[in-house]
Amino acid sequence: GYGNVGERISKRLRDAKKFDIVVIEKNKQTCENIKQNKIPYLEGDATDEKILIEAGIERARGLVTTILDDAENVYIVITARSMNPDLHIVARGSSEKVKEKLYRIGANRVVLPDDIGARIMAESLTRPYIIDFMDSMTEEGDPNSEFISFKIEKDSKVKDLTIRETKLGQNFGAFIIYVKRGGKYLNSPRADTKIEEGDILTLRVSKEYEKEVCEYLGSCNT
Length: 222
Description:
The chain has 222 residues and is an alpha/beta fold. The protein is built from ten helices and nine strands.
């Protein structure tokens, strides 16, 4: 199930240099392609618990399953969740029905590539300038910036400060894109918006200051 989607995900994770990754693939020819891309891999079936263990599933931070077969994705999610309750699982699905099932059995995020692709193509026709803007916000659009997110804990330095008072923009050139508060999103929050415990902030920051911002805010989930 490596395919084009799996290949692009693996390359992005590798190039980001934030994670140690390993790809599980059972097709021999595909394994040769992975090897040429200098990406660590195991030849085997991801539905096999022994292969998952060999890949380090019990100590892994995350799992991405991009197999085209929904049944296999479901089985992998169930197995991986039982082996590592804290694992962050991102799964591929083919329909809303499968999406609901994957969420029920333990996936943290489910992506429907066909649905996303269709939506982007439609938006590219009806609202092309918005798509251009979204492209400019990606890593490809600006290789010198990063998106980072973090949760405000009880002892956070910025808890109960307004966005202006944090001086994130003044000191680091960081731009807060949105604040997630409960189930709501505060998009493009005002400078006088007060940051509360439990808020999840997502920022865009220059790679030059990424480490400093993370150190200032605490542990970032980039």
